[in-house]
Amino acid sequence: MEGMDFYRELRQKTSAWAKEKGKSYQYIEYLLLAPDFFYLLVRLMLDRRVPARAKFKIGLVVAYYISPLDIIPEAMLGPVGFSDDLVLAVWTINSLLKSVDRQVLLDNWPSQTDLLATAEKIVTVADQWIGKGAYQKLRSFFKTRVFKD
To answer: What pTM was estimated for this model as a whole?
Structure first.
């Protein structure tokens, strides 16, 4: 499955980058979860308990993760470029809580960290982390097109 290959490659690149950076990158603990959030989204796409409308949203975010064209490009910045992808994934998870049982999300979450607490922390620091300009562009684009519930 192509999505899982992307997940493994993302996990490997992010881990190697983190070892090189050490503790010097302020948001490293969150960035290391970018592959896990990608994995969660792919798993939710395949889960029968997730409604079709929610899967449409998830599919758009998975496409954004994979796309080389985004607000903070991975090709230029390496794993730091997944910051915007991660913020978007967290917004998606928060949005899904309206239509998907919380247990479905937890059943598909591959990490040992607390999914909902982690998502809340990422939302709290998102505009500082990815920069106010990038945050506003991402938010305005997806708020009007994807999260207009």
So the answer is: 0.80
